[in-house]
Amino acid sequence: MAYTEERAYVELHLAVFLWGFTAILGDLIQLSALTLVWWRVLLTTLSLVFFVRIHRVIREVGWRRFGLLAGIGVVVALHWVTFYGAIKLANASIALICMATTSLFSSLLEPLIVGRPFRWFELLLGIFILPGIWLVVDGVDSGMNIGIGVGLLSAALVSIFTSLNKKYIGSSNPQRITFIELGAATLFLTPFLIPFGGNHFWPAPLDWAYLLVLSLLCTTLTFFLSLRSLSKLSAFASNLTVNLEPVYGIFLAYFLLDDAQELSPNFYWGALLIVTSVFGYTAIMRQLRRRALLT
Predict the structure, then answer these.
(1) How far is it, in rounded angstroms, from Cα 110 to Cα 105?
(2) Is 70 left (phi over 0), alpha (psi -120 to 50) or beta?
(3) What angle, rounded to 10 degrees, do the helices at 265-294 and 245-256 form?
(4) What percent of the chain has pLDDT over 90?
(5) What residue ranges are annotated as transmembrane (predicted)?
(6) How far apart are CA 251 and CA 183, in angstroms?
(7) pTM, whole model, 2 decimals?
């Protein structure tokens, strides 16, 4: 069965749905953001040992690409630390809605990184998000503003590593790429565990269960699906689809966590504006494709 663009969208949406659980799990796991991410990337890397030939990884990808993928892995590590940092500093819903701003950063950064032309409608959709961000900030307690800032930094890092993956993965095996990137992320974070990892290093019994779900289902599987989808989708389309993660995540947080008690109606109006950009992009792309077929 051929791997089509439609199948790529289906797999990416499945990955995004599973990503919606990551913020919930991050809120439930009683570890610092840095320690949580270290365990996540370590367990994910170990889960891939059985699927890649470790002794042949460098020979198969080459030293230059290996170095590039390892560098991307560092960006991934920084993204996850800032993402879970935003959860700890604010809450899961705020961290998730900050992630929806990836399309704004992607509209500016992907053309520079990948080397494709700017698209006016991508920039407009990105600008459309700005009032939504203002409403989100206005709809939370001022004590959570640092969490919002960290969440926005995390969103910028997503657009960077997604664009870099789009540029450099080519036809490489997604499992091999995930192994290299998250293995590099593990090594990068290890020296920071003692000074910045917090007081608790070993997860509690329930945290182990959450970490296994987070690592195997919400990381190993989703990373594979999202990387494979990039062979058919643009980084901007991928990032904009990832913006649906807040829809799933906030819905789950509303029922599973106490986030709703900390948020005002303005937060939800802002979230609505941000999520609308996802459907706006889809509609514009559909129109442009129809016009291309007619001409």
Answers:
(1) 8
(2) alpha
(3) 150
(4) 31
(5) 12-31, 37-54, 66-87, 93-113, 120-137, 143-165, 177-196, 208-227, 234-255, 267-284
(6) 32
(7) 0.83
The residue length of the chain stands at 295
Q: Where are the beta strands (DSSP E) in 46-155?
A: none
> Residue 74: what pLDDT?
97
Specify the number of domains making up the chain.
Answer: 1
pLDDT, tens only, 186-202: 999 999 998 887 778 99
Q: What type of residue is 172?
A: S
Is 26:94 a contact under the CB 8 Å cutoff? no
Q: How far does Cα 246 stand from its chain's mean position?
A: 11
Write down the mean pLDDT value for the chain: 83
Give residue-wise pLDDT tens across range 250-287.
778 877 877 767 677 887 788 787 777 666 666 676 67
Contact 80, 182 (CB under 8 A): no
Domain boundaries, position 215: 5-294
Task: Say how far apart CA 209 and CA 225 lie, in whole Å.
Answer: 23
> What six digits make up the tokens of 8?
């790529």
Asked if the model's pLDDT at residue 134 lies above 70, the reply is yes
- What is the sign, positive or negative, of the torsion defined by CA atoms of 72, 75, 77, 83? negative
